Amino acid sequence: MVLNQSIGVTIMNEALDKLRENLKNETVVVATSGGPDSMALLNLVNSLKDELNLKVVCAHVNHKLRVESEAEAAMVEEFCTKNDIFFEFMTIDSYKNDNFHNDAREQRYDFFEQTVNKCKARHLLTAHHGDDLTETILMRIVRGSSFKGYAGFSEKLQKSNYIILRPLITYTKEEILTYVKNNKIPYAVDKSNEKDSYTRNRFRKYILPPLKEEEKNVHRKFYKFNKTLLMYNDYINKQTMKYLDQVYQNEALNISKFQALDQVIRDRIINKILEKYYHDDLRRITDKHTELIEKLIFSSKPNQTLNLPNNKYAVKCYNELSIQENKKTENYILELTEAITLPNNKTIKIVSQTNCTSNNICRLNTKEINLPLYIRNKKDGDKIELKGLNGTKKIKNIFIDEKVPIAERNLWPLLVDSEDTVLWIPGLRKSKFDKQKDENYDIILEYI
């Protein structure tokens, strides 16, 4: 397709050069909402289809939230048909997350990735522009973010098997509108973008315009800021990786080694760990989370937890810190059989003989206890009469003494009789009912 020689073409030369630099002899997927930004990008890519020998795929998502959605999908499909562009689409029928924008974004990008894989594409193009970048940076500065988060989003992002490219990042919305109007490219207008109820809309309408009055090309200043922060972030990452493996192994942070590091490296290590669990979505994480985690690490209390976004939490257990899923533990009670597999994936079984005398073995005389026997997890107020100790001790305190990780305590098995008397804490401590090898007993239990 030959483009009109207009001002709209002229101002897009930089984007065309970026496309020529990155795309050639390949399949490329263009995320296309139907708005002016994505339609401009789709048209630009299509204009280079023959020159660069490209197979162009349009990926469109119908969110079904506005009455215009169906007409917009039809408009995008018609444009693709006229220009021999492959059209892939999905319809979102429901949103499972209370945060609509996050859920919509996750479903949208899942579809884009599926399309990339289906078409064996190397690039996914999105139409994020300079105003988008400026707004994102400003919002994150106001809200708080990580060092990388303050940079906004990358012009080029390497995913596992493809690259996200944003060739319009140096243009303003006004320049893009000039391009689509001068080249008579169809596009839709989402009226929800005018609503003040959305944070980004308020930044777009009331904060960005005064900055542009102060400096017409302020978006390029923010673009430079973006590239500078990402460059510094790469350097700090390289330095951080020299220490990360020393202090973080088997998904656990060694607190004493971590505390000896420089503040900047400490912050980056925390961010690297969080990135592992939150992937590229740093919008849920702010600098406040980093501060709270570091405060947790330096706290004098040996065992603490900290709630984090997305149903996760940080767990400090003595000299280790880990990030875990916030899964609710269900209470359980199981009647003892010959061999029983426990919720913590351990097993308690009856054995005929053993010479072992460790806390993994318990010998009982059934005449001194009340059958049947059960295995359950702890309850508030549980106590045990320890072998060789007058009086009782709380199970909770034994867990603390034995440095049992907080995350494991609710699943740890207790052997009790039918009167709910605690007879044994497998692997940890025995009650007064445990027998020596030379005493009378008729049942031997092994915890493995």
Which helices and strands, and how do they pair?
Blueprint: H1 7-10, H2 13-22, E1 27-31, H3 36-47, H4 49-52, E2 55-62, H5 69-82, E3 86-91, H6 100-119, E4 123-125, H7 130-143, E5 156-158, E6 163-165, H8 173-182, H9 199-214, H10 218-247, E7 248-249, E8 252-254, H11 255-259, H12 263-278, H13 287-298, E9 303-308, E10 312-317, E11 320-325, E12 333-335, E13 339-341, E14 347-351, E15 361-364, E16 374-376, E17 383-384, E18 393-394, H14 395-401, H15 406-409, E19 414-416, E20 422-425, E21 429-430, E22 443-447
Parallel strand pairs: 1-2, 1-4, 2-3, 4-6
Antiparallel strand pairs: 5-6, 7-8, 8-11, 9-10, 10-11, 12-16, 13-14, 14-22, 15-22, 16-19, 17-18, 19-20, 20-21
Helix pairs in contact: 3-8, 7-9, 7-10, 10-12, 12-13
- The chain-level mean pLDDT equals 91
Fourth-tier CATH superfamily name of the largest domain: HUPs
The portion of residues forming beta strands comes to 15-25%
Treating each run of at least 4 consecutive H or I residues as one helix, how many helices? 15
Estimate percent helicity: 25-40%
> What does the main sheet amount to?
6 strands, mixed
Query: Roughly how many Å is the radius of gyration?
Result: 31 Å
Order of strands, main sheet, comes to 3-2-1-4-6-5
- Whole-number total of structural domains: 3
Cα(first) to Cα(last) distance is 71 Å
CATH topology-level name of the largest domain: Rossmann fold
Taking pLDDT < 50 over at least 5 consecutive residues as the criterion, the unreliable ranges are 1-8
Named CATH architecture of the largest domain = 3-Layer(aba) Sandwich
What's the count of strands? Answer: 22
